[in-house]
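Subject: for your reference before the review

Hello V.,

The reviewers asked for a structural picture of the protein, and I figured it would be easier to keep everything in one thread rather than splitting it across files. Below is the amino acid sequence we used in the manuscript, unchanged from the supplementary table.
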Amino acid sequence: PPVYKPTLSPPVYTTPPVYKPTLSPSVYTPPPVYKPTLSPPVYEKSPSYSPPPPYVPKPTYSPPAKPYVPEILKAVDGVILCKNGYETYPIQGAKAKIVCSEPTAYGKSKEEVVYSDPTDAKGYFHVVLTHIKDIAHCRVKLYTSPVETCKNPTNVNKGVTGVPLSMYGYRYYADKNLNLFSVGPFYFTGPKAAPTPPKY
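And here is what came back from the structure prediction:
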């Protein structure tokens, strides 16, 4: 029998493909542009024009003024009575006097006398010592009595020799800014009896 011989087509040689990596074309990307974030502008008003202040010279230094302290007033009051025997009653219209010996230069003293107003129906007198600076040198004495039957001063409570105000306390009245010295009571008496002649 016949021998079967396959008919083979001649071999075709193909060049193996060359591997080419697929690259996308390079794209140029510009670097980012830095944009600073700005706060919105603040508009300030332009200052309004004001004229310069007038020139004031600096005050010269003067020591601080001492606060005003009103002078304390000084006054004397008291009562003048009549003591005639067993009878005692106030004298209206009587007067007292305040005798002050103020020392002056060269060791001398000047005497100043202040008279009270006449006493009222209760025998009360009151006198303000306006011009007397130091009442430590003042004495209060009896002065006059309008009662003819009771005109002789007595030295009861030093009505004749004088009451030294330096020995007396006083009451202070804040509403009147007043120091009040109260003296007495003082007494006038009747006429002195004639001395009785001695009996032999």
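For the response letter, the relevant points are probably these. The radius of gyration is 62 Å. The mean pLDDT is 80.

Happy to draft the paragraph if you're swamped.

O.
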